Amino acid sequence: MFPYLGNFANILPYDDIFHYTLSANWQEGFSASHEHKKSTRPQAEQDQSRYYNKHNSFRFSIEVRDQNFFPDSWFETIGASKIDYQAKIYKTPPGNAEPPHIDFFPSFIGHTDKQGNLYSQKEILALGKKIIRAWIPLQDSKLGHILFTDNFALTKWSVGDVYELPSGLVHGFVNAGREERLLLVFTGWRL
Description:
- The protein is of the alpha+beta class.
- It has one domain (4-189): Jelly Rolls (Sandwich), CATH 2.60.120.10.
- Helix content is 20%, strand content 30%.
- The chain has helices at residues 14-22, 31-34, 43-48, 72-78, 106-109, 121-128, and strands at 4-7, 27-29, 59-63, 86-92, 96-101, 131-137, 145-149, 152-154, 161-164, 171-175, 181-189.
- The chain has a 7-stranded antiparallel sheet, with no helix packed on it.
- The longest helix has 9 residues, at 14-22.
- The mean pLDDT is 93.
């Protein structure tokens, strides 16, 4: 289940965010082929990574922390620190999926601890309790756009709706539709 954090249509500048996506300098990527294969990832993720590649697990992303899309009221409402947060917009073409995975927060905390060792699953789960990750759709739900976890699939949302991606929850996303999917992901420290 993905906890509903509320409708933020009156807090976040959705028109500005969407307009920014029209001229963004997108970075190509697919995490299933490089992130999910790491030895510190759960074995199920390592095993399933052989099924996913740039042809079925592709997406674009752009970091937007420097765009100041998050006003003070955002941080107050979700209980997040304004210091050291991360924000990325993802664009997923039709026919692509982000396979089931647990968030390890590499773009937020990095891959390694202060000693240079890869974070273990146990360390990520402990750190994850201090982190809030918000799933912010930038468009109304479309045919074939699905956020899923075991025994639950979210298929309906409206611009302004925001959901939490709880740490430690196995989840994924599918764009089995006809249109690109635009999504903003916010990651920050809980207050």
